[in-house]
Specification:
- It is built from eight helices and 14 strands.
- With 356 residues, the chain is of the alpha+beta class.
- Strands 4, 5, 6, 7, 13 and 14 form a six-stranded antiparallel beta sheet that branches.
- A hairpin with a 4-residue loop joins strand 13 and strand 14.
- Helix 4 runs antiparallel to helix 5 and helix 6 packs across helix 8.
- About 5% of the residues have low confidence.
Length: 356
């Protein structure tokens, strides 16, 4: 038994959610490597459908199951949270040499598995023939993906009952600096609380903490977003405890400077309602809120279809203004350097930590 502090039922659900993520992720890898489709829209649509299909096969009486985070495929210098958007051609079709970041999530009654991986699109025959052997850029990119794998192993080994979160931060930041890269500012790994990604109560680990008065990008909570350069509290020192569940995020870019400059090219795609309540004044806003919460609960969802309807745009605006609807900003590294990421869910046991 992994732990006495989390029920075996919930542990099984976390394991199952994460297995679904892994199954679908491998299917996406296969489609990309075999070039079945390199269209971001088709891949994201396929992935979300497959998560729903896999969830429907299990826990027949459970209604709260399905996509917890809509599949996001972000290319090259896009830091994440990207969903297909028309006329953004540089990021809608995967090309040879692209750095591909895929993130997705599944939930079974609030037991959320999150998985993020980075791969490189290389021509299989050219790779086998050694075409890339002398390509420094490709070799460097492969090195960074290996660094992600190594850091994941290190983090799983280091996170134990009684260990300190700051030791994780120091280790990851040091390894990145050794390899001439930096975690993106304020990258947050966060604790799951009561089956939700609860910003107020969650413990969290912040990598490359930065406060920049010139940054105008805002988010409502450090725990919600990914790689958001927003003034947030740095690490509050704590010990890991048995039965805690975390989503770990390792996100970095090659850089000689820890102050990485971002730009925004368009509005966010992914949103979620948080646990707070506000009595919205407009009927259209209340209808939008009711519709989305009924369909997604507090899971993240693709907001683009709703933005295409005027009555829903009103609801999005009012709910956002009153901070009950949060967004996941889409940031691009301004100098064009690629971003690499790995994300995974862990449960801390009495004797060891289990990664899903």
């Amino acid at each position: 038994m992994l732990t006495d502090k989390i029920s075996e039922i919930d542990l099984t659900k976390y394991n199952t959610s994460s297995k679904i993520c892994r199954i679908v992720m491998e299917e996406l890898f296969s489609k990309i490597y075999k070039e079945d489709t390199l269209d971001v829209y088709e891949l994201e649509k396929y992935s979300d459908q497959r998560i729903e299909e896999e969830c429907q096969k299990i826990y027949k009486k459970e209604k709260n199951k399905g996509v917890a985070f809509p599949t996001s495929i972000s290319l090259n210098n896009c830091a994440g949270n990207y969903r297909y958007e028309k006329e953004n051609d540089n990021y809608n079709t995967i090309k040879e040499g692209d750095i591909i970041k895929i993130e997705l999530g599944a939930s079974i009654s609030g037991c959320i598995g999150v998985l993020g991986e980075t791969i490189i699109k290389l021509n299989k025959k050219d790779n086998e023939d050694g075409k890339y052997d002398d390509d420094k850029k490709i070799k460097d990119n492969i090195k960074y993906i290996q660094l992600l794998n190594d850091l994941k192993d290190d983090v799983i080994d280091m996170i134990k009952v009684g260990e300190i979160n700051d030791e994780i931060r120091i280790h990851v930041e040091s390894k990145c600096i050794e390899n001439k890269c930096f975690p993106l500012q304020n990258t947050v790994s966060y604790q799951h609380v009561n089956g939700e990604l609860n910003g107020d109560e969650s413990k969290y680990i912040v990598l490359n903490h930065q406060i920049d008065e010139n940054i105008s990008l805002k988010t409502t909570s450090p725990v919600r977003g990914n790689t958001i350069p927003d003034p947030i509290n740095e690490n509050i020192c704590f010990e890991f405890e048995e039965g805690e569940v975390y989503t770990i995020q390792l996100i970095f870019t090659p850089s000689e400077d820890e102050n990485i400059t971002f730009q925004t090219l368009h509005d966010p795609h992914i949103y979620r309602f948080n646990e707070y309540f506000y009595n919205l004044k407009l009927k259209m806003s209340r209808e939008f809120c009711s519709l989305v919460k009924q369909k997604y609960s507090q899971n993240a969802f693709d907001c683009l279809p709703y933005k295409n309807e005027g009555k829903y745009r009103v609801g999005i605006r009012e709910a956002s203004e009153h901070q009950i609807l949060e967004n996941y900003p889409i940031l691009y590294v301004k100098n064009g350097n690629p971003v690499f990421h790995k994300k995974f869910t862990i449960v801390i046991g009495r004797e060891h930590t289990k990664a899903f």
